[in-house]
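In this supplementary section we document a worked example of the pipeline. Step one takes a protein sequence of length 220 as its only input; no multiple sequence alignment statistics are reported here. Step two produces a three-dimensional model, which step three serialises into structure tokens for compact storage. The input and output of this example are shown verbatim.
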Amino acid sequence: MRVVLADDQLLVRAGFRALLDAQPDIAVAGEAADGEQALALVRELRPDIVLMDIRMPVLDGLAATRRITGDPALADVKVIMLTTFELDEYVFEAIRSGASGFLVKDTEPEELLRAVRAVVHGDALLSPGVTRRLIAEFAARSKEPAEAAGLAELTDREREVMTLVGIGLSNEEIARRLVVSPLTAKTHVSRAMVKLGARDRAQLVVLAYESGLVRPGWLG
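The serialised model returned by step three reads:
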């Protein structure tokens, strides 16, 4: 798994590099100190993952992420946003921009490694501190629910599964809720993503809120 590190703090990059390069299945392909450098490296190296700081000079992490996820040639590149604060005001906006997940910079090393591996395999990821309630809070500030393109093509079961994804359930939890196998739950999630043109599970969550399938406050 090839990773690009994008953070304006040299010590942060050095710490991440030391941890990632020590793993037999992960290698740091390059480092960038701002969003423009990150974008150039991603276009050159085509890594599997970019660990992208939100706040950087020249071009911030949000803008860089939008350019990466908006480029069809970079469709296989996943972005994990890095933030100093769990309650970052840009969390929801970054996921809408195409980020596959979030990590706070002081996350445990095991969590960082799990995140990189999970996102490479197509799962979305949020730090434990960036909870489902936080997603709901920022979803409440987004535009009024509107029918997402492709929503009408979903079967009733796919809508049901998308709703459960929206409230934060994993495939295993969805399987238990619906009394189906985890593989069947994963298949329904994948079909919903394809029909809605969602880049990954994180964007499916966003669409669940924006289309009104899930409303803030449903988490109890």
